[in-house]
Amino acid sequence: MSTDLDTSLIRNRLKNVQSLPTLPPIAAKLNKMVEDEDITAAAIEAVIAKDQAMTTKLLKIVNSPFFGFPQRISTISNAIVLLGFNVIRTLIVTSSIFETMQSSDILLWEHSLGCAACAGILAKRKKLKSPEEVSTAGLIHDLGKVVIRAEFPEKFVEIQKIVEAEQIPMREAEIKCIGIGHAEIGSELAKLWNLPQRLIEPIKHHHDINDNLIFKDITAIIHFSDILVRGLGFGSGGDPWVPDLDEKAWKIIKIGKNDLKEILEEMDSKIVELQDFAMEMQK
Q1: Residue 190 is part of a domain; what is its CATH number?
Q2: From the CB of residue 275, how many other CB atoms can be counted at a distance below 10 Å?
């Protein structure tokens, strides 16, 4: 089967996913609201505040170590001001994915948290416009793996067997088994959820940096963060190997040895906080 056919089939399957939790009722409303240039933080907060469970969950994530704000954020309005509408919307829309990861694959959840933290550190060093959005891209870069596990469980087991038997990375095993990798599946779901292209592109290309990308800097940061967190051994991406760093990504990021040393030192302290946060989110 061709990849195009597989993508079409999986897109149709994703429209009617059965195993993943449904989107929160407020997600569709927020998707429309954030498209209005005149929308206010107060209006967004009023919608979110109607869902107390979502409010609590959102504040937990906003106060997490991978965003790293120096003071505690106690209101949704403050969170919106600091993070922006797009990040808040993305966190709400993908909250079902977080719940699935926390309950079924804590190692993937830890890996995603680590990638988010590292991406934020790099984005701040590179002085990107919205480092919090880059952190969010790191958090959801592997959401395709959650989809495969939840919606295609028989294929997930088969993929794991191929990884172990042939000693190949998970992405190669996915393509071998279902004709498409988690990055492509994740990006298809992100499109269906109307997430911004700044997030869709890093999800789809975090293993594949090419010259046609619009958001090369974010994608390169997620690629690098994924590899670095794997190298640090925090959590698991589903296989034990650390991929090679794409030379294109390295040229885009442009960090020196001293920068790398400082990033590793910062990540060492972050990992301790992230482990505590991962355990807290499971409660």
Answers
A1: 1.10.3210.10
A2: 16
